[in-house]
Specification:
Layout (H helix, E strand, L loop, with lengths): L1 E10 L5 H6 L1 E11 L2 H6 L8 H12 L6 H15 L3 E11 L9 E7 L2
Helix pairs in contact: 3-4
Length: 115
């Protein structure tokens, strides 16, 4: 399994109008499975999934405003699967840091995975 953890974004997601204007911080973790046998043998980036490209796909999805974390998470999974056919399975966790819920809390999060 490959993990890209702690990706940080400042985005404009949420159900409250203020969230779409002011924005907030998010953290994204992506875990995925792909066959790494050829990369292990050849030490060639061409034989595996390029982490930079994965990050760019996620960044692009985080730039599109959504009301719900669930919607963003599903969009990320779909985008990753479309871009990388060699990914067999993926799981994404999105954390909204310091959410405006009327109390002090570090984050709320949603975790989804492919079927």
């Amino acid at each position: 399994m490959i993990a890209i953890e702690g990706m940080e974004f400042y985005s404009y997601h949420g159900c409250f109008e203020e969230e779409k204007i002011i924005g907030t911080a998010f953290k994204v973790d992506l875990y995925f499975k792909t066959d790494t046998n050829e990369a292990e043998k050849t030490d060639s980036l061409r034989k595996t999934v390029n982490y930079l490209t994965v990050y760019q796909v996620i960044k692009k999805e985080m730039e599109v405003s959504s009301n719900l974390l669930e919607h963003i998470a599903r969009r990320i999974l779909i985008a990753v699967q479309l871009e990388f056919s060699q990914i067999d399975w993926a799981k994404v966790k999105i954390q909204k840091l310091n959410p405006p819920l009327g109390g002090k809390m570090r984050s709320v999060s949603v975790t989804l995975e492919t079927e």
